[in-house]
Amino acid sequence: MPVKVVMQNELTMGAADRIREMAEVVVDPELKQVSGADIVVVGRGPADAAFMSRAGNRLKMLATPGIGVDKIDVEAAGERGIVVIHNPDAPSQSTAEHTVALLTALAARVMTGDRFLREGRSLDREKMRGTELRGRNLGVVGYGRIGRRVAAACALGLGMNVRVCDPLVDQGQETPEGVTLTGDFHSVFTDAKFVTLHVPLAPGTRHLVGERELRMIPEGGYLVNASRGSVVDEQALIRALREGHLAGAALDVTDPEPPLPDNPLLAMDNVIVTPHIASNTDLGVHAMMHGVADQIAQVIAGEPPRSMVDPKVWPGRFAGWSAADC
């Protein structure tokens, strides 16, 4: 029996065809055909404990093309010896660039002006007045692959004063000119004109930014979120915008996704909402698709995949397994 790979969404840009040269590929949007699968490529998920039990004991690896693994129960997978892989660096540059684009578009009132002209409204010069970024304070929550790129671009490229908080990084490490690390989470909000978020969704980060944090941003400040929608208490954000405490927000993610048609954020002139497309660039998608194919090729060759969420699980169910025996 050949190696069986089930894809919730078919990998594009030639990646699925590469895998077909190594294994049997089943594209199954509802994940109803996972029984007997060796590898499952998860899209929208969910891949929880019940799903893993349904897949059976042949399941050895769960893969996701992107960075986030919030659709996969990583703990349940580890308990079963199932390796979980992702592509932590593949979409990082694209997501960072999208974040900076959201920030600059928000500051320059790009979308507000676009809406006024398209809808034939008379231009309110006060509403159209932008915010110059040079010399302004930017708070960055999370200093991983994306947060680092955003912090450097805004400090070195835009001349902003950047303060970053990430409890998981070495506070004494060297940073680009204009970037300061702090261990005080709330200090990145208290004097920031802009705050941008770059943390994964986990139990400890759900509603990490709520009423308290939003009100710490000085009146007239802005929030940018290209991480996960649930990292922000969306109702608290709506209140802060409606009451005028925040001057605007730019979001590539919402809670839920897609946003409901009556979500107040969609009707606000001072809010930019994009449909979770930060990583959806030519190079970003290619790196994600082929990052999965590369790692499937690695395990079929008997090698550990390069981007395991928890390397301690390896070899897990791959112990003693050989694709040549299938």
Overview of the structural elements:
- By secondary structure, the chain is an alpha/beta fold.
- 30% of the residues lie in helices and 15% in strands.
- It is built from eleven helices and twelve strands.
- It has helices at residues 15-20, 49-55, 74-79, 92-107, 110-118, 125-128, 145-157, 187-190, 211-216, 234-242, 282-300; strands at residues 4-7, 24-27, 39-41, 61-63, 83-85, 137-141, 161-165, 179-182, 194-197, 221-225, 246-251, 271-273.
- The strands form two sheets. Strands 8-7-6-9-10-11-12 form a seven-stranded parallel β-sheet, sandwiched between helices. Strands 2-1-3-4-5 form a five-stranded parallel β-sheet.
- Strand 3, helix 2 (49-55) and strand 4 (61-63) form a beta-alpha-beta unit.
- It is elongated and about 70 Å long.
- The chain starts with a strand and ends in a 26-residue tail after the last helix.
